[in-house]
Amino acid sequence: MAFHVENKNVLVTGANRGIGRAIVEGALQRGAAKVYAAVRDLDSAQPLVAQAGDKVVPIRVDLSDEASIRAAATQAGDVDLVINNAGVLKTEPALSENAIDALRFELDVNVFGLLRVAQAFAPVLASRPEAAFVQLNSVASMKSFSDFATYSASKAAAYSLTQALRDQLGAQGTQVVSVHPGPIATDMGHQAGLDEIAEPPSLVADAIFAALENDDFHAWPDTMAKQFSQPYQPFAENVVEADMQEDPA
């Protein structure tokens, strides 16, 4: 199944800046009928409203607050595409005295937040003639980086869940895409000290919509991501994306 965003309703978490804002703009450029800008602070979405008018609808979503997500799923009951972009990063090595607290924080947003969004919106997406769910993961989903080891662990867990969601949401006719950016020029990228090698957020938006149109499970937006994809893609095709009998033993 392939998904085209033209005339569709889209919801983007973390929509007010960085990659999220680029996704909102990319969806509108491609003819989306409406974009729900899902943010913790509704005022932060006002620049998008000023730019696009009533095609952008601010909606409150906090990935650590299940009630806000459930309420958003009710309010955005006409959504065709959910893009879970919001995430958090703590730059903590594994042996840091703050590592456990950092990991708890990152797991709550990056992993449990993903589950909260998927569970709340799965019935909504099931009701739409064409639907898709996109999860922003990372190259850190596949390789741990010691300077932010806890973040890498949370993204590895999120990627594992995204694979499971591909099967379950796929069974109801919802396409799933797992996005794996490398260094991107965002506040998070700056926090990680990646300014010198960071690339534009628009690359991520472009990769998402291309993956949706091509019915690809993985999206590799930037230079580093593409370097990861070259050796990883054969494994992905033969194991991750293959129809295999479930036998964890």
From TrEMBL:
InterPro entries for the chain: KR_dom, NAD(P)-bd_dom_sf, Sc_DH/Rdtase_CS, SDR_fam
Record Pfam families: adh_short (PF00106)
Name used for this protein in its record: SDR family oxidoreductase
Protein family membership: Belongs to the short-chain dehydrogenases/reductases (SDR) family.
Keyword Oxidoreductase belongs to the record: yes
Species name: Roseiconus nitratireducens
Domain Ketoreductase, first and last residues per copy: 8-187
Record SMART domains: PKS_KR
Keywords noted in UniProt: Oxidoreductase
Entry's Gene Ontology molecular function annotations: oxidoreductase activity
Tree of life domain: Bacteria
